[in-house]
Amino acid sequence: MTSKMFFRIPCSAVRLVTFKPSLRAPAHRAMATVKGIPTDDEQATGIERRTLQALKKGQDPFSILKPKEYAGTKEDPHIVPCIGTKRLVGCLCEEENTAIVWFWLHEGNAQRCPSCGSHYKLAHHELPH
Ligand SMILES: [Zn+2]
């Protein structure tokens, strides 16, 4: 007994097999040669790229990193970056304090907090262009 088998191919399957070559992904994609997810160094552009390059040199042009900690003594005053000649500084004299002591810090010698006596010194900081 012989039997013939017929397969009916649905129209949607035909379309999947015979799609136009122009709809395929281009062979020269940048991701084709690179495996994995690109890093920030590879894909960052503009100001983000300049910031990443500055961070590699140890610079922090936009103060995005946690500030360095200083003892606040006369020998190791708190360094306050400033683009002008004076800056308003808030001193949280003790860790548990809920009130901040505000005072103006001027360029020149280190100044002391009027409440706790910590030393603060202004340092010029140039913003990137
Ligand atoms: Zn203080």
UniProtKB/TrEMBL annotation:
<dbReference type="GO" id="GO:0005743">
    <property type="term" value="C:mitochondrial inner membrane"/>
</dbReference>
<dbReference type="Pfam" id="PF01215">
    <property type="entry name" value="COX5B"/>
</dbReference>
<dbReference type="GO" id="GO:0045277">
    <property type="term" value="C:respiratory chain complex IV"/>
</dbReference>
<dbReference type="GO" id="GO:0006123">
    <property type="term" value="P:mitochondrial electron transport, cytochrome c to oxygen"/>
</dbReference>
<keyword id="KW-0472">Membrane</keyword>
<feature type="binding site">
    <location>
        <position position="93"/>
    </location>
    <ligand>
        <name>Zn(2+)</name>
    </ligand>
</feature>
<dbReference type="InterPro" id="IPR002124">
    <property type="entry name" value="Cyt_c_oxidase_su5b"/>
</dbReference>
<keyword id="KW-0007">Acetylation</keyword>
<keyword id="KW-0999">Mitochondrion inner membrane</keyword>
<feature type="modified residue" description="N6-acetyllysine">
    <location>
        <position position="121"/>
    </location>
</feature>
<dbReference type="InterPro" id="IPR036972">
    <property type="entry name" value="Cyt_c_oxidase_su5b_sf"/>
</dbReference>
<dbReference type="GO" id="GO:0046872">
    <property type="term" value="F:metal ion binding"/>
</dbReference>
<feature type="modified residue" description="N6-acetyllysine">
    <location>
        <position position="68"/>
    </location>
</feature>
<feature type="binding site">
    <location>
        <position position="113"/>
    </location>
    <ligand>
        <name>Zn(2+)</name>
    </ligand>
</feature>
<protein>
    <recommendedName>
        <fullName>Cytochrome c oxidase subunit 5B, mitochondrial</fullName>
    </recommendedName>
</protein>
<keyword id="KW-0809">Transit peptide</keyword>
<keyword id="KW-0862">Zinc</keyword>
<keyword id="KW-0496">Mitochondrion</keyword>
<feature type="binding site">
    <location>
        <position position="116"/>
    </location>
    <ligand>
        <name>Zn(2+)</name>
    </ligand>
</feature>
<keyword id="KW-0479">Metal-binding</keyword>
<feature type="modified residue" description="N6-acetyllysine">
    <location>
        <position position="86"/>
    </location>
</feature>
<feature type="binding site">
    <location>
        <position position="91"/>
    </location>
    <ligand>
        <name>Zn(2+)</name>
    </ligand>
</feature>
